[in-house]
Amino acid sequence: MKRISKKLDILIYILLLFAISCKKENSNPGPYAIPGNLKNISGGYVTGAATRMEIYSTGALFVGYNKLFIALYDSATNLHITKGQISLSVVMKAGNISNLPGSMQVSNMSLSGPVENPSSTQADSGLFNAAIIFVRPSTADSAWTLTAQVSNLVNGRSGAFSSSVSVAQPSIPKAYSVITLDDSTSLFISLVQPENWLAGSNPFEVTIHKEINGLTYTPDGDYTMNINPIMPAMLDMSSPGNTNPVYIGNGHYLGKVNFTMTGEWQINISLLHNGALADTSHYFNINL
Amino acid sequence: MYRRYIYLIAAMFIGLLHAEAQPDSSCHAVCQAACGSSCQCKEVSLRDIIISCPGANDDPQLGFYKQNRLPATEEILGRMQGVTLIRRGDYGMEPALRCYSAGQINTTINGMKIFGACTDKMDPPTIYIEPSNLNSIGVTEGAAGCKYGSTIGGSMNMDIKEAQPMPQRNFYFTTASSYSSVNNGYNGSASLSSSGPKASFRVGAVYRKAFDYKEGGGATVLHSGYEKANVAASANFQLNPKQSITLDYIGDMGWNIGFPALQMDTRKANANIASVAYNTQPDRKVLKATETKVYFNYIYHLMDNSQRSDAPMQMSMPGWSYTAGAYWNAKLEADKNNQIELRADYYTNYTKASMTMYPENAPEMYMLTLPDNMRQFGGAYAGDEWHIAPKHILRFNVRNEVMHANLLSEEGKEQWTIFTDNTSTNKYLPSGSVEYSWLCARHLSLNLTGAYGSSAPTGNQLYGYYLFGALDNYDYIGNPALKSEKALQSDANIAFNDKIFSLSLTGYYHRIYDYIIGTVLNGYVPVTIGALGVKEYTNMPGAFITGADATASINLKQGIQSMNTFNYSYGTLSNGSLVPLLSPLRGINSVRYTWKAWHIQAETDWAMAKDRVNTEVGETTSPSYCLLNLRTGYQLVLHKQIWALNFSVENVLDEKYREYSDWGTVLRPGRNFVVYLSYSFGS
After folding, report:
1. Which residue of chain B is at minimal alpha-carbon distance from A239?
2. Is B63 helix (H, G, I), strand (E, B) or coil?
3. CA atoms of B675 and B673, how far apart (whole Å)
4. By the 8 A CB rule, do B681 and B172 touch?
5. Which tens digits make up the pLDDT trace of B145-171?
6. Optimal mutation site among A196, A231, A261, A265, interface B, most CBs of chain B within 10 A
7. B534 contact residues in A (CB cutoff 8 A)
8. Minimal CA separation from A172 to chain B, in Å
9. Which segments of B342-436 does DSSP mark as H helices, in order?
10. pLDDT (tens digit, 9 = 90+) per residue, A198-245?
11. With an 8 Å Cβ cutoff, are B414 and A200 in contact?
12. Cα–Cα–Cα angle for B262, B264, B269, nearest 5°?
């Protein structure tokens, strides 16, 4: 009798386990959880769209390539909106814009920067991925304003959100501007990834944007890039097996950079344009 | 309930291992099985295998040179047939057998595997055994030495003195001191043993300190001093007359050990070596003795260049090595004509080494020079000595071994992604030999050996990461895709032995496959400032070595003894270059006269010039030399006390010389006066 009872207990446990493991997930999605590594940098109501918008990044905004993660919520129900169209722009207006990178032209005392709007109208895990490249830091008398044009594809309404954001100059620069040697084109080159460098093999992705004027930038895929990582403290020792970045679209160039050890590295970059040397004087400093 | 299962499983395991074990009486079980029913031990092989009981006669060469009261085990080893010392400093020399070194040979302590933690090989296992703790050294050349692990080069097993049971309780105390003038060096040692029928103990300690030595001519060789201490403890418990448990521990500490041929010195080194052995001597028809041992050793080594004022940058390189293993060894006697030995073993070795550099006005730089890695080995060995006829003996050795190696930490794997993502490797390592011995005349014997061996790549060869090789001034990168080295070997030996004169001549020819050697990687920049480039370990299709060894000894009743060894080797790699570590014709000739308690000895240590070298691996030519050493000693026995006073003058002619296996161009010590005093007391 005891033995039968024991067997029944085991059977019940197995069935319970099966039932738990087969529980249907996401029958009611609810609000998506925001990953813990993201920091809220701005947010508010999108006027006219009955939508609330929250903008996240992996850290404080800085001069260079900033990945943004945007969440949209129905302003009445606070439910996640996973279908929408977002168009971003940034502009700096000030009475005194000085020390501009390179020789960028200022248009009507305004300055902008390249943006990468979400490529899809469908959110990924509740977030729309975008990027903004800031070309200079905020100062006391010159602030950046981020504007988002939002179309809520769930309720069919559109509107705009605007907010002032603070942009810092990182202690180790992650972007630089170039006036090319061959045709004096003004370029802005930004480091995309990796965010965390390791001793070993690292993907190396940068963007090149051509500045048309201070308010207009276009991705530029016309350049050839050669990289040479060196350690200045080791008599400019280089590392083996690096892969020069190649153009992958939308101004992005992807390669591979290897570091044999931790310490201070310098990734020297040679730019070629139609076979002619465009720039060799710039580099990224890496401290790992 | 669970406890019952655990007991049951443990009992089954022990039962399987010792199904034939039964209690009986004492003495050294393994040795007795090898040597017959008594504990009077002898060499079981005519030329290479040594099995000895404590206190029994060692190998003639070892016994002869041990009486010289040489200060370090490596100096005794250096005088043994076929052994070469790769010298990078005055202490911590790496032993090599013929042209084989590193992972090509097995170096063991009491059968235990031990691997140094220094990627520059500053800490070979031989430094952990002090002469005062050394009982015997078993050297087997070639793949026939596969008992302790698959090998192409041979094995070198150092048996340490252990606590030994005695029918009646007794004590033995000994202390010794020595002083060497060439390095202002002091050695002191003491040991105490207490033996009884049930429990026996032995403890010993050694301290040695030496300053920079003077080369021939009197110039000081900077960064050649050293300081170290060593403790050894052993306990033996007789469970019953046929079963015993032995616990051994060796602790070794070193400080400021200089290596003038390298760019760094040992700042600190620690070794802890421990084992527990269970011995049985069952009174069975077939099974004669078993030994089951579990062991563990931990080595920490820190080297830096803090004492080198010419260093371009300060750096430190710590290294760690953990080895844990177990083996089961059994001696069987299938019949009176077959002495069989079985062994099953497993061990795992973890090593890691890193380098931190401290540039001025820049952040520290750090890399894993040997990323955390583990190599696991499991193997089984069988050996049989078959007396097929009164004058004919066949000896078989067979071993099958497998190895698995992999990187452990994500940090190490990430670092290795520069070269490859596939860093795990498995190896099958078979080894075996057949030896035929024929006593063709009354004192004349002939031995022919054919062998096949394989050796696994070392941790450095698999996972080394910009390891600087001071010999050729290249940084070395490991290669996880390395194949194991294989060798087909043939040895022929003819030996004459009688009470007065013995002569042994050995010729050998070995063909090696997948020989591991560094190959220049073009376009790679070294990490070491000033290095010439980067090499990667690769397999060379083949190599061959050939050579000859000879030993002659004379033992006259008038108290005259003479020991003479000669050797020469030659070989080429498949690319036409010479095999590294080839020995020019060299020899040691000693003659000793003993009169009552006195003895006096003259010794020449000589070598022909080595003009043909492999410059690709950094070898440099070495001129010929001939050293003269003089030794004398007096031993006074007073009841239960023994006083011994030894005095020697080494390199009497103050010759400026270096041996062919020395790294760099650092000269060896010049004239050296050594005085040695010992006192022993026993009850």
Report:
1. B525
2. helix
3. 7
4. yes
5. 999 999 999 999 999 999 999 999 999
6. A261
7. 240
8. 14
9. 410-416
10. 999 999 999 999 998 878 999 999 999 999 999 999 999 999 999 999
11. yes
12. 115
Instruction: Kindly report, residue by residue over B203-246, the tens digit of the pLDDT.
Output: 999 999 999 999 999 999 999 999 999 999 999 999 999 999 99
Question: Tell me, what amino acid is at A203?
Answer: P
Q: How far apart are CA B667 and CA B221, in angstroms?
A: 8
Question: Scanning the structure block, which residue is given the tokens 């207490």?
Answer: B194
| Nearest residue in chain A measured CA to CA from B528 | A234
Please list, in sequence order, all residues whose beta carbon lies within 8 angstroms of the beta carbon of residue A106, skipping any fewer than 6 positions away.
Answer: A97, A100, A214
Interface-testing mutation among A198, A260, A266, with chain B (most B C-beta atoms within 10 A) = A260
DSSP bridge partners of A168? A62
ipTM exceeding 0.85, yes/no: no
* Distance of alpha carbon B669 from the chain centroid: 23
Tokens representing residue B445 in the block: 């014997």
SS3 B296: strand
Structure tokens at A226: 């050669």
Name the band, by pLDDT with cuts 50, 70 and 90, for residue A22.
very low
Rounded to the nearest 5°, which phi and psi values hold at A231?
-110, 105
| C-alpha–C-alpha distance, residues B433 and B510, integer Å | 13
Q: How far is CA B144 from the centre of its chain?
A: 16
* B454 HSE (CA, 13 A, CB side): 17
Residue from B415, B423, B520, B536 whose CB has the most chain A CBs within 10 Å, to mutate? B415
Six-digit token string for B204? 């010993």
Closest residue in A to B411 (Cα–Cα): A199
Say which DSSP state B142 is in: G
φ/ψ bin of B36: left (φ > 0), alpha (ψ from -120 to 50), beta (otherwise): left
- Give the A-side interface with B, CB within 8 Å: 198-201, 231-235, 237-241, 258, 260-264, 287
Residues of A in contact with B413 (CB under 8 A): 200
Token readout for A199 is 């001793």
A228-232 contacts, C-beta under 8 A, 24 or more apart: A228/A267, A228/A268, A228/A270, A229/A257, A229/A258, A229/A259, A229/A265, A229/A266, A229/A267, A229/A268, A229/A286, A230/A265, A230/A266, A230/A268, A231/A261, A231/A263, A231/A264, A231/A265, A231/A266, A231/B365, A232/A264, A232/A266, A232/B362
Binary contact (B415, A234; C-beta < 8 A): no
Q: Which residues contact A218 (CB under 8 A, 6 or more apart)?
A: A209, A210, A212, A251
- Closest CB to A260 among B313, B411, B418: B418
Query: What is the helix (H) or strand (E) element at residue A237, kind and residue range?
Result: strand A237-238
Task: Report chain A residues whose CB lies below 8 A from the CB of B467.
Answer: none
CB contact under 8 A, A261 and B521: no
Q: Do B414 and A199 touch (CB under 8 A)?
A: yes
pLDDT tens digits for range A129-152: 999 999 999 988 888 999 999 999
Which amino acid is located at B265 in the chain?
A: D
Paired tokens of B435: 């030896």
Closest residue in chain B to residue A256, using alpha carbons only: B418
Q: List chain B residues with CB under 8 Å of A200.
A: 413-418
The residue length of chain B stands at: 683
φ and ψ at B330, to 5 degrees? -140, 140
Given a contact cutoff of 8 angstroms between Cβ atoms, the answer to whether B31 and B53 are in contact is yes
Tell if the CB–CB gap between A233 and B527 is shorter than 8 Å: no
Separation of alpha carbons A82 and A140, rounded Å: 37
Contacts of A261 (CB under 8 A, 6+ apart): A199, A231, B355, B365, B366, B367, B527
Strand segments (E) across B110-198: 112-113, 134-141, 154-160, 170-180, 185-195
